[in-house]
């Protein structure tokens, strides 16, 4: 017990100069400082004694966060110049101790990461992510978090890809990771297309040269197209704030043609032995990006691959049925014709209960679309009723 007391005293003594400065500058009163010392003493003795649990560290960190918020408000109100990183450094120290003592607790690591992100301590955050992933290389959510963070905070798709591909080395069997990787690439394409449209640079995309097949399933990294949006630096800025030449040049590269999501899909399907359920999930994920020029190319490849690998699967049938309407707005004049094509494909599988269930899920939201053509709505309603009868009779 004396060892725990000595550790607690050591950590408390380190904060004495800081507290004296608070008292000297009248940020906290003498009574408030006494209360702070007592509270910290209670926490430190609890943390350094046997039987400490993660919740003890969390409560301590939360107390220090609240205290730092109060300190910042008083410093601002009093107009006092003081370094703003003292409280932050103490909170980081507590969270670091927690993560290292309970390194198997993912929630502690996430709280540590989130605090660093809130404080915009990006260098610190990079180190935390590295430590967390080194200790938990098979945690899919951590790899996804790291990849999404780099895209959302720094618009760094190159680093995001690096995290995803490293994650796939350890979590090759995770469908969630493969789908998220492809989704990040689709989001990236959507952002590039949006910027082109704002600048009036959206021109027809030229088909890229055929890529070599991805046959090496033992390779550490997925072989992506050799030219991507990163190679011409689409995020670089010129004097007007946007590199228009780079954005326009993207039309002649695989970046906007969907080559990267297709490479991910082909590699994933080989990895999962042409799993038709995964193919269906991939189709539905891509179909969410209904305004991209490459949408039909990507979905067409998915459907074609599924038909070759699993032609009798109901997942294949459903994707094949839905494909004619892909990328077409429900209220547009082109949709009725596209739906007619889908209906024609459905007739060959209308007695299949599994297909019927998927058709119901697909058509019910469309049926409720505001402004839908009345005759089309009646046709969709009739199709849903027929599908429901098939499901009930199964």
TrEMBL record:
One example GO MF annotation: snoRNA binding
Subcellular location: Nucleus, Nucleolus
GO biological process terms, semicolon-separated: maturation of SSU-rRNA from tricistronic rRNA transcript (SSU-rRNA, 5.8S rRNA, LSU-rRNA)
Domain of life: Eukaryota
Keywords: Nucleus, Repeat, rRNA processing
Stored SUPFAM superfamilies: TPR-like (SSF48452)
Predominant cellular place of this UniProt entry's protein: nucleus
Keyword Nucleus carried by entry: yes
GO cellular component, one term: small-subunit processome
Domain U3 small nucleolar RNA-associated protein 6 N-terminal span(s) in chain numbering: 12-83
Family recorded in the similarity comment: Belongs to the UTP6 family.
Name recorded for this polypeptide: U3 small nucleolar RNA-associated protein 6 N-terminal domain-containing protein
Organism: Aspergillus homomorphus (strain CBS 101889)
Highest classification ranks of the organism: Eukaryota, Fungi, Dikarya, Ascomycota, Pezizomycotina
């Amino acid at each position: 017990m004396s060892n725990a007391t000595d550790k607690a005293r050591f950590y408390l003594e380190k904060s004495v100069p800081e507290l004296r400065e608070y008292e000297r500058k009248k940020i906290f009163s003498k009574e408030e400082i006494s209360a702070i010392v007592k509270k910290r003493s209670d926490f430190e003795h609890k943390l350094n004694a046997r039987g400490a649990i993660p919740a003890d560290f969390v409560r301590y960190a939360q107390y220090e966060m609240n205290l730092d918020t109060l300190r910042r408000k008083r410093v601002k109100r009093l107009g006092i110049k003081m370094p703003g990183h003292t409280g932050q450094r103490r909170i980081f120290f507590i969270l670091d101790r927690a993560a290292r003592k309970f390194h198997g607790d993912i929630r502690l690591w996430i709280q540590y990461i989130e605090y660093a992100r809130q404080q915009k301590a990006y260098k610190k955050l990079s180190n935390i992510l590295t430590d967390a992933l080194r200790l938990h290389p098979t945690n899919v959510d951590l790899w996804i978090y790291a990849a999404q963070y780099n895209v959302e905070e720094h618009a760094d798709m190159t680093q995001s890809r690096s995290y995803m591909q490293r994650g796939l080395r350890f979590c090759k069997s995770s469908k969630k990771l493969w789908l998220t990787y492809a989704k990040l690439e689709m989001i990236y394409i959507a952002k590039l297309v949006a910027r082109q449209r704002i600048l009036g640079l959206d021109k027809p995309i030229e088909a890229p040269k055929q890529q070599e097949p991805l046959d090496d399933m033992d390779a550490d990294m997925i072989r992506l197209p050799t030219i991507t949006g990163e190679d011409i630096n689409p995020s670089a800025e010129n004097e007007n704030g946007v590199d228009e030449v780079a954005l326009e040049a993207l039309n002649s590269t695989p970046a906007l043609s969907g080559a990267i999501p297709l490479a991910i899909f082909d590699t994933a399907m080989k990895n999962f032995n042409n799993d038709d359920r995964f193919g269906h999930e991939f189709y539905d994920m891509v179909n969410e990006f209904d305004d991209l020029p490459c949408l039909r190319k990507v979905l067409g490849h998915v459907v074609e691959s599924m038909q070759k690998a699993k032609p009798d699967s109901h997942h294949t049938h459903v994707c094949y049925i839905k494909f004619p309407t892909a990328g077409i707005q429900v209220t547009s004049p082109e949709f009725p014709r596209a739906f007619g094509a889908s209906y024609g494909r459905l007739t060959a599988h209308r007695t299949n209960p599994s297909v019927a269930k998927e058709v119901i899920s697909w058509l019910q939201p469309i049926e409720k679309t505001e402004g839908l053509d009345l005759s089309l709505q009646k046709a969709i309603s009739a199709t849903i009723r027929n599908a429901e009868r098939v499901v009930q009779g199964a």
